[in-house]
Design goal:
- The complex is a heterotrimer of chains A (98), B (267) and C (429).
- Chain A has 98 residues and is of the alpha+beta class.
- Chain A has helices at 2-5, 12-17, 33-37, 44-47, 72-76; strands at residues 20-22, 29-31, 53-56, 59-62, 82-84, 92-94.
- Chain A contains 5 helices and 6 strands.
- In chain A, the strands form 3 sheets. Chain A has a two-stranded antiparallel sheet with strand order 1-6.
- In chain A, strand 3 and strand 4 (59-62) form a beta hairpin.
- The longest helix of chain A has 6 residues, at 12-17.
- Chain C has 3 domains: 4-65 and 100-168 and 286-361, FAD/NAD(P)-binding domain (3-Layer(bba) Sandwich); 174-278, D-Amino Acid Oxidase, Chain A, domain 2; 367-428, no CATH class.
- Chain C contains 15 helices and 19 strands.
- In chain C, strands 3, 4, 5, 6, 11, 12, 13, 14 and 15 form a 9-stranded mixed beta sheet that branches. In chain C, strands 1, 2, 7, 8, 9, 10, 16 and 17 form an 8-stranded mixed beta sheet that branches. Chain C has a two-stranded antiparallel ribbon with strand order 18-19.
- The radius of gyration of chain C is 23 Å and the shape is elongated.
- Chain C starts with a strand and ends with a helix.
């Protein structure tokens, strides 16, 4: 692929497209917006390997679809604002070569 | 007694994982996993709801290579009672006509059914032909975009609701009938442990090859497929305007909505 | 349907599959429950497995999906400027192989199923159930209960079930590391040419320093048949405080690192994966590995050794799972899986075992590593500067002592301090 050939970094959205998914229409992660709003450091924005947590206008915009199911957000969240479980029915990330 | 509800599922390459190789101009299929065509899960869910309400059984059929057993196992995990894998090298390379011929023959072989449900279309070809053609082969009433199904008092007819863009319609159909289920109209239920255990204990999946169906080789697979791909082209790339809307999120959102109205995207 | 088994194993990773294999081999009725689709679809690790405990547990590795036997070990220290010092070891006998855990786990599950275990996929267990006496008596999934004489919890590093059962606290960031990796396809010939490998030979390469931007942790490169697994391991606590750019950007920085990218140039990134891992197995270990009717194995039990240059997770997981499966058999013959019996038959033998004693003996290494900046930024800088003045010669030729002294001045690190650190490190080990 041309974009991986050179030194150019792949954006996380494109990186996640290299994976295979069967996303559950029901979210497996819930964010407590109230608790989240009081967070001074928001480590999820840097520590989530899938970039699922993005800061916009002072609050967190969150999506569960690209979740790699590692569980990092749950442990780094200082507010314990993330209700986290694995997806059901074998949905979510489908690893092939990890 | 109860109803016998057949539901067709297709084992398709997970489209999301298919990438396009710009150097060779071809699709990269290597390492791409397959899934049950997502729109077929709407049909499975509707079939299960009908069964749960009126009793009977749901039989899932899939004309696919043997690896599609994984897909049948998934829907049995959801609660489907039986699976039929229709698999034979002779069926490979089929277009929708040859496919619907095989599927309708398999439905006949089931020995009577009341409803045959299909997803609206598949993510790997989007023709939406199969349910219509199956109804054609079997000479049965057919309705598409179905979202809800009820039995009438006699138990011989169904009342089917379908959603169109601007209205809902209700139809009364004699059974047996064939329905195309509207995509995203149902929320497929999760897989259950007891269903998966039943799968392991009873193995309710049969495989039918052409030895069972005994269809004329000229009518199935590549030979039975009149469709020829004459040409394929790329959809033209739409240039992006890369407009950035300034302001607070609220202001930017307002500007975006205004722009969408201006362009006629929103009315 | 009445659902009852002798043993229910939660999680079909290396620990769970080995547990199911062992228990089923002893004639127990075993259910192995996995949340993923098929076996292996949720499995992530670095890329290398030590074979000893797998062979011990399984008897052989027949049909195992081995990519390459590791014949070359490399350890590199990289400074922020990209200057690299590398130690390479080869010519020994090989004790480890590279593999995709997705495939290795599937192979282990096949072995368990062949031994008679019932494997069920696509089912997420939601809680461990206790009977009124407090004994663990089954697991609950999607509102359904399956009963068991004994449960083997191999749920992995995120101990949702053990937390809900009140057996462990929510994990601290100080006890965890985050691994992210990419699998890059470059071709079989390219793997061998670019890494200087014989046919079928594998490379295991650990890098520290500038590759993590000075954060505590390291990077790894493992060669598979026609792909390369490259990744980063970051200590979660330090990273959460000091990381400057997102993790996904750091792994891309590693892939495009000027000193490294040539190895996989033109390669196609075919997968991107992430996993939490115990930073120190010993600290992560639950206070008790057994309860009445319950045993804990694998990552959930903290059975993972991380020395910075060596990671043993999969083989320890298999080992602990195998021990748990064997204990389930022995407990049946000894009056049932009471807490006392399981302690005697699983926890105590495990605590006396070599892997466990190593975890205990080597505990604290990761703590020394938390010295952070010194180990991961300043010592690499010292090394880079020293080697530069030794090898990049112009007018004058410094002695080693002069090179070191110059480098110490340049990097602002005292040699004495470095020696003290080295001693402290040695003592902590």
């Amino acid at each position: 692929m041309s974009e991986t050939a050179g030194l150019q970094r792949i954006r996380v959205e494109d990186l996640l497209q290299r994976d295979s998914w069967d996303v559950d229409p029901r979210p497996h992660i819930r964010l407590n917006a109230e608790k989240c709003a009081g967070c001074p450091t928001k480590p999820c924005t840097r520590m989530c390997p899938a970039g699922c947590y993005v800061e916009a206008g002072g609050s967190i915009v969150f999506s569960y679809e690209g979740c790699l199911e590692c569980g990092t957000c749950r442990v780094v969240c200082p507010m314990e604002a993330i209700e986290w479980d694995y997806p059901v029915s074998g949905r979510g990330i489908q690893y092939r070569t990890a | 007694m109860g109803l016998t509800i057949a539901v067709g599922i297709k084992w398709v390459p997970n489209q999301q994982a298919v990438r396009f190789d710009e150097r060779t101009g071809t699709l990269i299929r290597e390492g791409v996993t397959s899934i049950v065509n997502p729109h077929d899960l709407d049909a499975v869910e509707l079939a299960l709801r009908i069964r749960d309400r009126y009793g009977g059984k749901v039989v899932a059929l899939s004309m696919s290579p043997p690896s599609a057993v994984k897909g049948l196992e998934h829907v049995i995990g959801m609660g489907v009672d039986e699976g039929v894998l229709i698999s034979d090298r002779a069926f490979a390379g089929a277009d929708t006509l040859a496919t619907s011929y095989v599927i309708s023959s398999a439905l006949r072989r089931l020995g009577g059914f009341d409803l045959a449900l299909f997803g609206q279309e598949t993510i790997d070809s989007s023709t939406a032909h199969i349910p219509a053609q199956v109804a054609g082969w079997l000479g049965l009433p057919y309705l598409y975009y179905a979202t809800e199904v009820e039995l009438d008092g006699s138990g011989r007819k169904v009342i089917v609701k379908r959603m169109l863009e601007d209205r809902a319609e209700w139809y009364e159909l004699d059974m047996p009938a064939v329905l195309g289920v509207a995509m995203k109209s149902q929320l497929p239920r999760p897989v259950k442990l007891s269903n998966k255990l039943r799968l392991r204990e009873e193995n309710p999946i049969r495989t039918w090859s052409n030895a069972e169906l005994k269809l004329d080789q000229r009518c199935v697979g590549l030979r039975g497929s009149p469709t020829i791909v004459a040409k394929s082209t790329w959809t033209p790339e739409v240039p992006r305007r890369r407009q950035i809307l300034e302001g607070t999120p609220e202001e930017a959102a307002r500007k975006l909505v205004e722009a969408l109205f201006r362009e006629g995207v929103l009315r | 349907m009445h659902m009852r088994f002798d043993v229910v194993v939660v999680g079909a990773g290396p620990a769970g599959a080995a547990a199911a294999y062992a228990a089923a081999s002893g004639g127990l009725k075993v259910l192995l429950v996995e949340r993923g689709r098929g076996a292996g679809s949720k499995q992530v690790y670095g890329g290398k497995v030590y074979s000893h405990y797998l062979e011990e547990a399984l008897g052989d590795l027949k049909g195992a999906p081995i990519e390459r036997w590791v014949g070359k070990e490399r350890l590199s220290i990289v400074d922020d400027a990209g200057r690299t010092a590398t130690l390479e070891y080869e010519g020994g006998s090989t004790r480890a192989f590279t593999a995709h855990l997705t495939k290795l786990a599937a192979w282990l599950v096949d072995r368990a199923a062949s031994a008679g275990a019932v494997f069920v996929d696509e089912v997420r267990v939601d809680s461990l159930r206790r009977d009124p006496s407090g004994r663990f008596s089954g697991v609950e999934a999607g509102g359904e209960l399956v009963e068991a004489d004994v449960i083997i919890d191999a749920e992995g590093v995120n101990r949702l079930l053990l937390e809900r059962a009140g057996l462990v606290e929510r994990a601290s960031t100080r006890d965890l590391a985050l691994g992210v990796k990419e699998v890059v396809r470059i071709g079989e010939k390219e793997v061998e040419e670019r890494f200087g490998l014989d046919k079928g030979e594998g490379l295991s390469w650990i890098l520290v320093g500038g590759v993590t931007g000075g954060l505590p942790g390291g990077a790894f490169v493992y060669t598979n048949k026609d792909t390369v697994s490259l990744g980063l391991v970051l200590y979660v606590d330090a990273a959460a405080r000091a990381i400057e750019e997102p993790v996904h950007s750091m792994i891309e920085k590693l892939r495009t690192h000027p000193a490294l990218h040539r190895y996989w140039a033109d390669g196609d990134v075919v997968e991107y994966a992430a996993k939490l891992t115990p930073e120190s197995g010993y600290r992560y270990m639950p206070r008790r590995l057994v309860a009445d009717g319950l045993m804990v194995a694998g990552d959930a039990a903290g059975m993972l050794l991380n020395l910075g240059y060596t990671f043993r997770g999969v083989d320890y997981a298999v080992y602990s799972g195998y021990m748990a499966g064997r204990a389930a058999i022995a407990a049946r013959d000894r009056g049932g899986p009471t807490e006392e019996n399981l302690r005697e038959l699983y926890e105590e033998p495990l605590r006396r075992s070599r892997p466990f004693r190593d975890l205990w003996r080597l505990r604290g290494v990761e703590r020394a590593m938390e010295g952070g900046d010194r180990y991961f930024r300043r010592y690499p800088a010292l090394m880079g500067a020293a080697l530069r003045s030794m090898f990049e010669l112009g007018e004058s030729t410094p002695s080693i002592y002069e090179a070191l002294r110059g480098a110490a001045e340049e990097s602002g690190i005292s040699i004495i301090g470095a020696l003290v650190d080295a001693l402290m490190m040695a003592r902590s080990i």
